[in-house]
Amino acid sequence: MPPDHGRLYFLLIVLVLTTTVRFPATSAVELPKFREAPAFRNGRGCPRTAWSSLDQHSHYNPSIIHIAMTLDNTYLRGSIAGVFSVLQHAICPENIVFHFIAASHHNRRPSDHLRHVITSTFPYLTFHLYHFDSNLVKGKISYSVRRALDQPLNYARIYLADILPSGVRRIIYFDSDLIVVDDVAKLWNINLGRRVLGAPEYCHANFTNYFTPKFWSNAAFAASFKGRRACYFNTGVMVIDLWKWREGKYTEKLEHWMRVQKRCRIYELGSLPPFLLVFAGDVEGVEHRWNQHGLGGDNLEGLCRDLHPGPVSLLHWSGKGKPWLRLDSKRPCPLDSLWAPYDLYRHSSLFSDS
User: Which interval of the chain is the signal sequence (predicted)?
Assistant: First the structure.
């Protein structure tokens, strides 16, 4: 091969290698872009109040509503829609504090990209971003019927009492695939009484289906529900008294069942069954209107579903089918049109000079 051709060949190889190395690094930090939401202001009669995470032992203020949600690239579009819906329907939106939890991997904290997305989309929002160490649960997770349920961040709800400041007494936990169409203060103000957790219960569901035959054939395991009228509840909408949670060491109780699962395979559905094992039968019931769940269909096919009978304050696309994916694919379910008005995603132009 002539020398000039050899140099040309060498430069071509360098160019290909350089392009191959740089492409993943650029795409790894690319997040969806969203339109800026309008400023939502308190209505007349809302108390003026403020909360700071710097005051770790601040006095409990029931006028401040604390909401926890997770943030990740996959469900970011759903999280943004959820926040937008909460603010739009709240009478006192300026009294709402959001606590966002993002995963960190291999001792690497998430970059500032997620924070930038929130501040640019909701410039007037009071929020705090926390980092969830995935290593806390990686050794405790066993595979389930759907890969999304196996992600470490799906288990962050178990550690809210450890992640959030001690000054946060009560929290509403919301999944990232729901919208609120009512004033969230109504959910916030439910009376938990002596209980740690409140959620809509569904006692008509076949409770045995949430655990394997191995669980029910083991007398010691099955006896864990003795004396309790155990009913199914969906962990995507929960009101939690974090002070009572810490006092009762409920994180350790949930982790116990996760370790049992690793040894014995007693359930199939991610982070839900441990909550059922610990809390079912001891949940403060909330009106069903606050979790019209299952709109994403089942965990395998995600087929279209209708609303449950009765009033609606919250629509929840739990299950495999997510409204933003079905809308983008031009194959939406009828109820996905109810989610669409809260979608702040900035779609790229149909035509581009590039």
Answer: 1-28
